[in-house]
Amino acid sequence: MLVRLYGGLTMKHALAPVLIGLLSTSAWGQSAPAQNSWVDQVLPPGATRPTAAGLHNCLDRYPADAKAAGIEGITSLSYRIADDGSVKNVSVLKSSGNVVLDKAAVACVKGWLYEPATLDEKPIEIPWRNDVKWVIAVNPPIAWPPSEVMPSTNAPLPANIQPPGPPPPPPVNTITVQRNVSSPPPISSPASIGRPHVCLAMYPADAQIEHAQGTVTVGFTITMEGTTGDHHIIKSSGYTALDDAAVACTVSWRYKPAVKDGQPIAVPWKAEVKWIFH
What we know:
Blueprint: E1 16-20, E2 25-27, E3 30-31, H1 38-42, E4 51-53, H2 64-68, E5 73-81, E6 87-94, H3 99-110, E7 113-115, E8 118-119, E9 122-123, E10 126-135, H4 174-179, E11 187-188, E12 191-193, H5 205-210, E13 214-222, E14 228-235, H6 240-251, E15 254-256, E16 258-260, E17 263-265, E18 267-275
Antiparallel strand pairs: 1-10, 2-3, 4-7, 5-6, 5-10, 8-9, 11-16, 12-15, 13-14, 13-18, 16-17
């Protein structure tokens, strides 16, 4: 749930592998035509597609050593979905280029469950395939303060909000730290707290089925209490369901509020929520 959640979202988003969709996409935000796809080839005529039971991602399976080394990649897998919805006979169709990531993808997919495909209202076993995309820092931080006018209002930031000045020079010793430290910047940036600011778990089911993807820029206010309010879409993903899910996700985010002159203040903020479903 890449959560730029750049609400990675400073929005701190977890380093996250993202499940790639059942169908490939011909371009960003555009699903490849369903006809003549591999799905049509593996499904018997008249059969219904299998559907994921639960959330199919490998968010908590990113190998620690690979993550620490910054290793990314895509593992393409083939397997069979049994008539009871379990996964079996998992194998690597195309390697990510890293054996550790490939093994983690296989182990992850073995635990998935489906509502099985049906034919004449009876569950059937079929071959299937999927990609697991291992991506680090799907949602990088948004810098504060924003450098441009907020597009939704076409108005500049409030006049009383000034960007922080340059950092003070490094102290020579502890005496200078106590006596000669520069004044703190007029505003400290808010910092995300609480649960990670990611939205992958909120990927709308209908959007997954349609393999809709895109980036939503959400604007909101971080209040003095650290909650969020006044949510609005600055830039749409092109899909209403993804836009609505991005707003719903950011509503629950919590922050250590910005501070001016030692007092918490409300500030405008924005985050990019990237829905990836390759």
